[in-house]
Write a structure and sequence with these properties.
2 domains, single chain, 6 helices, alpha+beta, 2,3-Dihydroxybiphenyl 1,2-Dioxygenase, domain 1, four-stranded mixed sheet, globular
Length: 297
């Protein structure tokens, strides 16, 4: 945890907001993991928040060394930068591990995303991260404000999906997120961004009322991305969980169960003294196995 906190602070300018250690029946129930003892650190960049979780017990499995950007358990967060060249040199100065060949610029042929620049890299545990630059007229208007900061905030989390329609049924039709835009991305820039030869993607951006968006990455080619391991547990290092705020966690859990989607928690859990920043919550998985933490504040 100390290594990761230093990385997100020193390299990416995140600020530590809270640092707690928790254990007990409520947290075992929440994460679906017996004997869980967790250190949870919340960090903030702009209006966006991340949670880093270290399982002191039981320790989980590491990220497989052969995982690829088109495997179905792939996920990253996209951190907006004000200057791509300066941000890339800053990352190189800190000796980050590349996931992309280098920063890529979406060409004019892709009207929806033309001029956007992006680069994938890895954190100390091997999680993929992205820095992204939006030119004038692209992205949320807040990313166009004049600032002297290099790292601005979190625009979205991206997840690989096996079927866009199935994922829209889940996130849009069941959960109520709005489809904000779509694009078809292909070509040498996309291949080198994802480091996947022949990459051709259907990308869909979804938004809630506030907070970062959720972006679907469906690989139309190649189609050899591996499904998420069915036995994935919350302490495995490839596990991510996207936090979704709801007015009624019990009703949300009932909705998912009625639609026969996976709920990992044995029930909606009341968190003592809101130690994790919320009153009630439960962990679920989407159609491709991505973790979702539903919370009621």
């Amino acid at each position: 945890m100390d290594r990761s906190v230093e990385f997100f602070f020193q390299v990416l300018s995140f600020e530590k907001i809270s640092d707690v250690e928790v254990y007990g029946r409520e947290y075992e129930k929440l994460q679906g993991l017996f004997g869980a003892r967790m250190r949870v650190v919340r960090m903030k960049l702009g209006d966006g928040m991340i949670e880093l979780t270290q399982y002191l017990a039981p320790e989980g499995r590491p990220i497989p060394p052969d995982w690829r950007s088109n495997d179905h358990w792939f996920q990253h967060i996209a951190i907006v930068v004000s200057d791509m060249d300066k941000a890339y040199q800053h990352l190189r100065h800190h000796k980050i591990r590349h996931a992309s060949t280098g920063p890529q610029t979406i060409p004019p042929s892709n009207q929806a995303a033309a001029g956007i620049r992006a680069f994938y890299f890895k954190d100390p545990d091997g999680h993929n991260l992205e820095i992204i630059y939006f030119p004038a007229g692209k992205g949320d208007p807040r990313w166009q404000r004049k600032t002297d900061k290099l790292f601005l905030g979190i625009d979205h989390t991206a997840i690989v999906v096996s079927n866009t329609r199935n994922s829209l049924n889940y996130y849009r039709d069941l959960l109520g997120l709005k489809l904000a835009g779509e694009s078809m991305n292909q070509g040498t820039e996309q291949e080198h961004l994802n480091n996947v030869a022949g990459a051709r993607l259907h990308i869909s951006g979804l938004r809630a009322h506030n907070g970062p968006g959720i972006e679907f990455l469906e690989y139309l080619s190649p189609r050899d991305g591996r499904p998420a391991p069915r036995d994935t547990r919350a302490n495995d290092l490839w596990h991510w969980q996207t936090t979704l705020t709801t007015e009624n966690a019990t009703a949300a859990a009932q909705t998912l169960r009625a639609a026969k989607w996976r709920v990992i928690s044995s029930g909606v859990t009341a968190i003592p003294e809101k130690t994790l920043g919320f009153a009630k919550g439960f962990l679920a998985r989407d159609p491709d196995g991505h973790g979702l933490l539903f919370i009621e504040r």
